[in-house]
Amino acid sequence: MISIVILLLVIVVSVNGVSLRAKNRALNQREIELQIQIGEEKKCANEMDKYKSYVESKEYIEDVANNKLGLVYPNEIIFKSKN
Predict the structure, then answer these.
(1) Number of folded domains in the chain?
(2) Quick check: is 27 in a domain?
């Protein structure tokens, strides 16, 4: 009787061990995917910081004023083709 109980406990522990190993593999894979996603998000944040510093620069303001609003400096001469 004791042998049967011990055998059942060994079987239950073995089955739970297998399911825990499978769950561990799935969680490890998920961790790798999240690490990759974190890297991509950091790259995106870095690009956004660069763009933010460009948007706050004088060069950006001049580009927008010139290209979208058609503004020029008082001493600037603009040549336009006839075509």
Answers:
(1) 1
(2) yes
Three state DSSP letters for the chain: CHHHHHHHHHHHHHHHHHHHHHHHHHHHHHHHHHHHHHHHHHHHHHHHHHHHHHHCCHHHHHHHHHHCCCCCCCCCCCCCCCC
pLDDT tens per residue across span 40-62:
999 999 999 999 999 999 999 98
Residue 83 belongs to a domain: no
Identify whether 28 is part of a domain: yes
CB 72 within 8 A of CB 66: yes
pLDDT digit string, tens, across residues 11-22: 999 999 999 999
- Is residue 70, in this structure, part of any structural domain at all? no
Range of the domain at 28: 2-63
What's the pTM value of the predicted model, to 2 decimals? 0.59
